[in-house]
Amino acid sequence: MTKAKAKPKWERTPIDFSRPGRYLNGTKRGPEGHVCVFNANLCTKTEGKFWFGDLDLDSDERDDLIALAKAKGEDVYVLREHDARFMNEGSPRLENAVRIYTPYGTVIDGKPS
Predict the structure, then answer these.
(1) Over the stretch 15-73, which tens digit does the pLDDT of each residue have?
(2) Are 30 and 61 in contact (CB under 8 A)?
(3) Residue 36 falls in which region: left (phi positive, over 0), alpha (psi -120 to 50) or beta
């Protein structure tokens, strides 16, 4: 008799943009139907990369990211790990954004995963 694998428990942890390295879960799988970016990078045109961690873009993080864009007064780009890390750390590839959050409350879908 084999045991069925338990589905990963999914609990949202609040985002603290002053502390990078947010971790959602060890499976690197989000809830079905959600767009999750694991090891995501948040960047702006003026600051470059300022935060990294796991994001579930379909949870209530939408409001958090719009509020962040409003506070910064410019677009916040959500990039995958390799687009703002390693060789791209000093010059993030903003054109590859998964999503862009504007200070006006608009959310722009970028390149799909």
Answers:
(1) 777 777 777 777 777 777 778 888 999 999 999 999 999 898 887 678 899 999 999 99
(2) no
(3) beta
Distance between CA atoms of 108 and 22, rounded to whole angstroms? 23
The encoded tokens of residue 29 equal 């799988």
Global confidence as pTM: 0.81
Mean local confidence (pLDDT), 86-90: 77
In whole angstroms, give the CA distance from residue 61 to residue 34: 12
How many C-beta neighbours within 10 Å does residue 19 have? 9
Q: Which positions ≥6 away from 87 have C-beta within 8 Å?
A: none
Helices (H), 1-113: 61-72
CA–CA distances in Å: residue 80 to residues 3, 26, 65, 99: 35, 17, 16, 10
